[in-house]
Amino acid sequence: MQDTDVQKDKWQIPLDAEIVILKQCQMQHNLDSCMKCEKLLDCEVRDKYIKVVYESMNKGSGGGFEF
To answer: Is the pLDDT of residue 5 over 50?
Structure first.
């Protein structure tokens, strides 16, 4: 790792992985956003991504996240 690289915390690593998975899914469906997908409200890929985003935001402090 170079001095200019920012060390990733344990929440950023899974977030980066989920972003890749989400982008691949969007590309496979020729979409540039999940909002345009017919499976928007019933998508395991997006649900997992949202969960990992929340975990990275709260850094393990707990709590729930409900829409």
So the answer is: no
Average pLDDT of span 7-28: 92
Determine the Cα–Cα distance for residues 44 and 8; give it in Å rounded to an integer: 25
Query: Mean of the pLDDT values across residues 30-34?
Result: 96
Region of residue 36 (left: phi > 0; alpha: psi -120 to 50; beta: else):
alpha
Measured between alpha carbons, how far is 20 from 39 in angstroms, rounded to an integer?
18
- For the chain, what are the domain ranges? 12-57
Tell whether pTM > 0.85.
no
DSSP type of residue 29: T
* Dist. CA 23–CA 64, nearest whole Å: 25
